[in-house]
Write a structure and sequence with these properties.
Layout (H helix, E strand, L loop, with lengths): L1 H8 L4 E4 L14 H17 L2 E4 L2 H11 L7 E3 L20 E5 L11 H14 L7 E5 L5 H8 L7 E3 L5 H10 L2 E5 L8 H7 L4 E4 L5 H7 L4 E4 L4 H14 L19 H17 L10
Parallel strand pairs: 1-2, 2-3, 4-5, 4-7, 5-6, 7-8, 8-9
Helix pairs in contact: 4-9
Length: about 290
């Protein structure tokens, strides 16, 4: 659609990838003819767009790996980031228990190994029975039947609270009032919620293996920690250190590290604006290759 509008008006256009396209892991079961059509359409967009923006680096690597390294020059990574205004206002009330929050969807989706985190919780509470009335793990997001099944198998399900889907603003408030945030992912993606957790100045446990882009992001964040999602000892060590440190002090941008500012929506908008300005200055020298 973008290419057709651009061609009819004689203007430049930018294709935006918030998520993967034809190689998305959740589309592997689609019929072969549909998969082929998806690849052909994506190839056409990659060739025709004057510029391409992606939410995280792995999408760029995938595009260049599948369609050719020559397209790298017109791909820019602009993270989903966070909206600064959502972190303004009064600090939300402190929960009665030490709260570890997962603020996203699909925690136990295949490939995330979320069940191992629940096993680590069981092991940690089992070794520290006095904590079961003092600690709470809260999961927000869309209904996750796999998470509910895994919770039912736990020895200590009482420390797990599963919340129904809440608004984005309410999710930010939950992040701000939590003590620790947990994020996980599939393959080498970077979940958008991690930027909001960082913006709130919270300690973040990323369930991601060594060498991943998410692990690299955590190395650059002073309150970040990454551990393999199936490393029960690593997870329990982190939880023990977190409870010993006590309550988190961050609840808004004032509690965040200054390096997090580069992921703000304002910074992202500025980068996108420069891309548009460059295309306008160039006069759209290349109005897009033919499909």
């Amino acid at each position: 659609m973008g290419w057709r509008v651009a061609r009819s008006l004689g203007i430049s256009w930018v294709a935006d990838y918030t998520l993967p396209w034809s190689d998305a892991h959740w589309l592997t079961a689609r019929p072969r003819p549909v998969a082929w059509l998806d690849r052909q359409l994506e190839r056409s967009v990659v060739r025709a767009a004057n510029h391409i923006t992606v939410a995280y680096a792995d999408i760029a690597h995938s595009i260049c790996g599948r369609f050719g390294a020559q397209w790298e020059r017109k791909v820019s990574v602009i993270p989903t980031g966070f909206a600064e205004d959502l972190f303004d206002g009064e600090t939300p009330p402190e929960p009665s228990k030490f709260t570890i929050l997962y603020p996203g969807h699909h925690f136990c989706e295949e490939g995330r190994y979320g069940e191992w985190f629940l096993r680590a919780i069981d092991a940690w509470i089992g070794s520290n029975p006095g904590l079961q009335d003092k600690v709470e793990f809260v999961f927000t997001g869309k209904l996750d039947p796999a998470l509910l099944r895994e919770r039912a198998l736990m020895a200590h399900p009482e420390v797990i609270r599963v919340e129904p889907l809440i608004s984005h603003r309410a999710c930010i408030q939950a992040i701000r009032s939590s003590d620790v945030c947990v994020v996980n992912t599939v393959r080498n993606r970077i979940p958008g919620k991690v930027y909001e957790c960082m913006a709130a100045g919270k300690p973040v446990l990323a369930l991601s293996g060594p060498g991943s882009d998410l692990e690299s992001l955590m190395r650059g964040y002073p309150k970040g920690f990454a551990v393999s999602p199936r490393d029960i000892r690593g997870i329990t060590n982190f939880l023990q250190q977190a409870i010993q440190r006590g309550r988190s002090e961050g609840s808004g941008r004032s509690g965040a590290d200054k390096s997090v500012e580069m992921y703000s929506s304002r910074k992202g908008a500025q980068r996108l604006s420069r891309i548009f300005e460059d295309l306008l200055r160039s006069g759209g020298a290349r109005r897009g290759s033919q499909l």
